[in-house]
Amino acid sequence: MDFSDILSIVSSDIEEVERELEANIQSPVPLVFEISKYLLGSGGKRLRPAVLLLACGACGRLEGKERIYAASALELIHTATLLHDDVVDEAKLRRGKPSSNIVWGNKPTVLVGDFMLAKALSLIQACGDLELIKAVTDAAAKLAEGQVLEVMNANSMLEMTEEVCFGIIENKTASLLESCGSVGAILAGVDDELKHSVGQYGFNIGVAFQLTDDALDYSSTEEEFGKGVGQDLIEGKMTLPLYYSIQKGSASEQSKINEILASEEDFSEDELAFVREVVHKYKGVQLTNDMAEDYIDRAKTSISSLPDSGYKNSLNSLAEYIVERKT
Q: What span, in angstroms and rounded, lies between the C-alpha atoms of 129 and 73?
């Protein structure tokens, strides 16, 4: 099943989210709209609004403008962090085209990210629910912590541990998707236990999504992936496919990789090829994908107590799609 089929049950709501996003990036400053539109209109899957809307429907609420406001807010927060991320990482590509920092420079890109965060908070405030505001702002804080944790460790790849790798994944990616699930449940007015369960669905698919992303960075093609393959390594990011492969490597392989990673020079093509070869040899991609599958099983288990519905079916299908995707 493809992504659009999975989301067909909320397709009209997603269209409303698109209109709300368009309305919220309008600005009397032309460059603000231009940069916002460039990224928002560049083919994002709207995964976060989809999770929120499906979770809300699965918990029994099918109507209300607050769902659209909250879904739009979480997409704006996500998009703002992409803008900030690209500046920090000095990224060249985003979704298959030059990233905003390459087109307009770092300063406007960061400031437009700030604009989007402000607009997101305005939309959340319009929902009029303090519990919802707390769920979103807590997630935004965790997301920022995850980004800082990644930056802190960018120049010390050799000291990275599995625990730190997961800390980055959980804060930087999973926290916002956890919030999407929780917010959908909050809007539906269900009890605390169910809010937690639906939030855990979001958390677990968030971890699985990032694990799959990290695996694709070593196994996909640039055309499929929409960003430079091997970009994590080039940007000094230790991810789990490489971490697990280093642990399994021979002493000579470990020594050579350590020498490559410790170098302050840009990696040569031969060095990149050697690292990829080691990851392939020790099945780092497969190990990471297997772990992603485990988190998908956890996600499906976490919503097993929800009543059967088309929305619940879509949540389960979405979980499966996350580990089957190639982009």
A: 14
Q: What is the pLDDT of residue 175?
A: 97
Query: First-to-last CA distance in the chain?
Result: 15
Q: Which two tokens stand for residue 223?
A: 């055309």
Q: Which CATH class is domain 3-324?
A: mainly alpha
Distance CA 298, CA 26 (A): 40
Q: Are 71 and 49 in contact (CB under 8 A)?
A: yes
The predicted pLDDT at position 225 comes to 45
pLDDT of residue 222: 53
> What one-letter code names the amino acid at 301?
T
Domain extent listing, the chain: 3-324
* Strand, helix or coil for residue 52: helix
Cβ-contact 60, 49 below 8 angstroms? no
CA distance readout (Å), 137 to 115, 123, 168, 200, 250: 16, 12, 18, 17, 45
Burial per residue of 96-133, b for 16 or more beta-carbon CB atoms within 10 angstroms, e otherwise: eeebbbbebeeebbbebbebbbebbbebbeebebeebb
Taking a C-beta distance cutoff of 8 angstroms, is the pair 64, 187 a contact?
yes
Query: Which regions in the chain score pLDDT beneath 50?
Result: 225-226
- The residue behind tokens 């697990």 is 244
What pLDDT, on the 0 to 100 scale, is given for residue 221? 58
Cα–Cα nearest to 52, from 199, 204, 191, 197: 199
What is the reported pTM? 0.93
pLDDT at site 235? 77
Q: Which residue blocks in the chain are alpha helix, DSSP H?
A: 3-6, 11-24, 30-40, 47-58, 65-89, 100-104, 106-126, 130-153, 162-169, 175-188, 192-219, 222-225, 231-234, 240-248, 251-262, 269-281, 284-302, 310-324
